[in-house]
């Protein structure tokens, strides 16, 4: 009986955690990019801007590196917090159509979250990422610096899409 109560409480807690992560305005009205090629997306990306979240609080010099090992997409996010290197490894998989920029990413398996690429340069030099809600937003680039003009263009698009650009953070980069 005690085990059943514990399992029920554990399930309820996980359900609460999962559904609470989904709060926020949905992004389903913002289409993911098409003609997506995962092999071109692989490699290192630098985080230029983000909406704040506890899991990235006070982290600078943030990069995300995507590789394929043994047929799986491995994601390694790393940065520096209070002078110390921090990193986390996750897994990504294509959501449905491999030519649409929608993936699912997990850093806490077995739970996967939406990863939607809503802007992607034709040469894969920059990308704009969201999730299933407008609480999540990142601007990524292949280099640690982005021209102010391009950055402002992407922020203007984010504002038009309904993201709260007033809260954007710009982590330090080299």
H and E string:
HHEEEEEEEEH
Low-confidence stretches: 1-22
CATH architecture: Beta Barrel
Tell me the helix content. Answer: 10-25%
Number of strands: 8
CATH domain fold name: Lipocalin
Biggest beta sheet summary: 8 strands, antiparallel, barrel
Fraction of residues in β-strands: 35-45%
The dominant shape is: globular
What's the CATH superfamily, by name? Calycin beta-barrel core domain
Class of secondary structure makeup: alpha+beta
* CATH first level: Mainly Beta
What is the count of DSSP helices, taking H or I runs of 4+ residues? 3
Radius of gyration: 17 Å
Number of domains: 1
Q: Write down the overall mean pLDDT.
A: 87
Strand order of the largest sheet: 1-2-3-4-5-6-7-8
**Gap between N and C termini:** 56 Å
In short, what is this structure?
It is built from three helices and eight strands.
Summarize the helices and strands and which ones pair or pack.
Elements: H1 2-20, H2 38-41, E1 43-50, E2 59-69, E3 72-81, E4 84-94, E5 102-108, E6 111-120, E7 126-130, E8 137-141, H3 148-161
Antiparallel strand pairs: 1-2, 1-8, 2-3, 3-4, 4-5, 5-6, 6-7, 7-8
Describe it for me?
- The protein is of the alpha+beta class and 174 residues long.
- It has a single domain, classed as Lipocalin, CATH 2.40.128.20.
- It has an eight-stranded antiparallel barrel.
- The longest helix is centred in the N-terminal third of the chain and has 19 residues.
- It starts with a helix and ends in a 13-residue tail after the last helix.
């Amino acid at each position: 009986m005690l085990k059943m109560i514990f399992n029920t409480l554990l399930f309820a807690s996980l359900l609460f955690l999962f559904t609470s992560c989904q709060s926020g305005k949905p992004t389903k009205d913002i289409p993911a990019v098409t003609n997506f090629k995962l092999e071109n997306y692989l490699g290192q990306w630098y985080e230029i801007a983000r909406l704040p979240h506890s899991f990235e609080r006070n982290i600078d010099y943030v990069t995300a590196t995507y590789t394929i090992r043994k047929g799986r997409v491995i994601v390694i996010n790393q940065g520096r917090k209070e002078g110390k290197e921090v990193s986390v490894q996750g897994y990504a998989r294509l959501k449905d159509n491999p030519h649409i920029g929608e993936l699912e990413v997990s850093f806490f398996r077995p739970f996967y979250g939406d990863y939607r690429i809503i802007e992607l340069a034709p040469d894969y030099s920059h990308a704009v990422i969201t999730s299933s809600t407008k609480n999540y937003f990142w601007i990524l680039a292949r280099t640690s610096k982005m021209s102010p003009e391009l950055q402002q263009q992407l922020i203007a698009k984010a504002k038009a899409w309904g993201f709260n650009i007033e809260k954007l953070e710009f982590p330090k980069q080299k």
